[in-house]
Amino acid sequence: MLSLSVLNTADAETGAQVEVVWGNPGDPAKRIRATVAQAPYKPVRSRVDLRHHLATYRAESGPAA
Predict the structure, then answer these.
(1) Rounded CA separation 21/34 (Å)
(2) Hey, which residues does 20 pair with through a beta bridge?
(3) Three-class SS state of 6
(4) Secondary structure of the chain: what % helix, strand, coil (to 5)?
(5) What gap in Å lies between CA 28 and CA 21, rounded to an integer?
(6) Which pLDDT score is estimated for 26?
(7) What confidence score (pLDDT) does residue 48 get?
(8) Closest residue by Cα to residue 21 from 11, 34, 8
(9) Which of 32, 46, 47, 30 is nearest to 2 (CA)?
(10) pTM beyond 0.85, yes or no
C-alpha cells in the first residue's frame, strides 16, 4: 500500500519504522505501521548533470575552431 504522510524531520530518515494515523477526517481512523521511503519513486531522468555530457562531447569533438 502506498500513502503520503507528513513527518517530523527527526523521524523522516529513509528506512525508519513509524506509526501513522490513517483515515479521512470525520471517519474512524486507524494507526498503521509504515516504513519511511523517499519520493518520487520513479527517478527523474531529465535532471542530470549536463557538465559530464558536455565534457564528453568536447573531448570527442576535438579542439574548438
Answers:
(1) 10
(2) 32
(3) coil
(4) 25, 20, 60
(5) 10
(6) 92
(7) 72
(8) 34
(9) 32
(10) no
C-alpha cell at 30: 486507524
Structural contact between residues 22 and 31, judged by C-beta atoms closer than 8 angstroms? yes
pLDDT for the residue numbered 65? 52
E strand spans, the chain: 17-22, 30-35
Whether the link from the prior residue into 28 is cis, omega within 30° of 0, is no
Q: Which three cell numbers stand for residue 56?
A: 564528453
> Is residue 22 helix, strand or coil?
strand
Instruction: Note the pLDDT tens digit of each residue in 9-65.
Output: 887 898 999 998 888 889 999 999 999 988 766 777 777 777 777 878 777 776 665
